[in-house]
Design goal:
The protein contains eleven helices and eight strands. It is α/β, with parallel strands linked by helices. It binds nicotinamide-adenine-dinucleotide (NAD).
């Protein structure tokens, strides 16, 4: 069955270029009314102009879709509030939020100014939270919402020279976990994308051109479209690149229980292989999971099992 977004209103941040542009065009092509947000700055977040957002909105409208351009800076609560107020005035609802805006300020940590650390966290993590916070009461009221956070392999697995970016992208997992728990009863589903694609962000990484050519933004957009559909899962982390799709999980090993007289660094060293064993990995619904695992293990120990 084909998926459409008829009667749905979507806000896509950072939609003037790259992935966001592809997301906005595809959502509109499948029936959504789209707010094309973009600050229009350089890759490091400096500068800004609404022309990038306008170009994409014009493209959508010329193709028979419905879009409005918005130049809000996702880090500015006032501007984001105005963007959502304008969306409500125009279309009366917000069903889908794709947090996609991003910047890069790569440097090895010892050379990185804290200003560059904070700026990257501000756009990716605080900006995503700011936009989500602005639509959250609307989605609760509607009893419908789909929210995407755009993370990165850098946040899940690490990239040299991206301490700021990796920290921001990993922070989104925690944000999603809490919002999944808080949003479920209002039919708000939150998911994370971990993409790699050919955009201005990846143009100078030395990835061979014949590989990069296959890393299309459209391949990422397909996963985004599924994750904001009516039948979307919630709390999924979807890794995607060049037509490859996988689900990532935050897991924990089964571990060991050590009684009080063995809660020593020496015993932990002795048990390290067992503690680290990936044989019986757990994916928990919430933070009570690991506590319950160890409460049961402690009880079994006390019962002599
Ligand atoms: N391209 C990749 O391989 C890749 C990999 C992992 C994650 N990502 C993430 O995907 C998202 C999109 O990146 P892209 O590759 O399309 O890069 P891009 O630079 O082409 O697009 C990012 C857009 O965000 C906009 N933006 C930046 N700061 C903003 C702000 N404060 N407010 C509003 N808009 C702002 C920029 O103007 C730009 O148009 C980013 O979050 C990025 O970190 C991309």
């Amino acid at each position: 069955m084909s998926i459409n977004y008829n009667d749905k209103v979507a806000v896509v941040t950072g939609a003037g270029n790259g992935l966001g542009k592809s997301h906005a065009i595809a959502l509109a092509a499948r029936g959504a009314k789209v707010v094309v947000n973009d600050l229009g700055g350089a890759r490091d977040g400096t500068g800004g102009s609404i022309s990038a957002a306008e170009e994409v909105a014009n493209h959508i409208n010329a193709a028979g879709g419905e879009a409005i351009a918005d130049g809000a800076n996702v880090t500015d609560e006032g501007q984001v509030g105005e963007m959502i107020a304008a969306t409500m005035k125009q279309w009366g609802r917000v069903d889908i939020l794709v947090n996609n805006a991003g910047i890069l300020r790569d440097k090895t940590f010892h050379k990185m100014e804290m200003a560059d650390f904070k700026a990257v966290l501000d756009v990716h993590l605080v900006g995503s939270a700011t936009c989500t916070h602005a639509v959250w009461p609307i989605m609760r009221e509607q009893n419908f919402g789909r929210v995407i956070f755009t993370s990165s392999p850098s946040g899940l697995h690490g990239i040299f020279g991206q301490a700021n970016y990796g920290a921001a992208k990993a922070g989104m997992i925690g944000l999603m976990n809490a919002l999944h728990l808080e949003g479920t009863k209002y039919n708000i589903r939150t998911n994370v994308l971990s993409p790699s694609a050919k955009t201005r962000m990846t143009e100078d990484l030395g990835i061979p051109e014949e590989i990069l050519e296959q890393w299309t933004p459209e391949a990422i957009t397909a996963a985004m479209l599924f994750l904001v559909s009516d039948e979307a899962p919630s709390r999924a982390i979807v890794s995607c690149v060049g037509g490859g799709y996988a689900r990532a999980y935050m897991t924990e090993t089964d571990g060991v229980y050590l009684p009080p007289n063995k809660q020593t660094p020496e015993e932990i060293a002795a048990q390290w292989d067992v503690i680290s064993s990936q044989e019986n990995l757990h994916f928990y619904d919430n933070s009570a999971g690991p506590n319950m695992n160890f409460i049961q293990k402690a009880k079994a120990f006390a019962d002599g099992k």
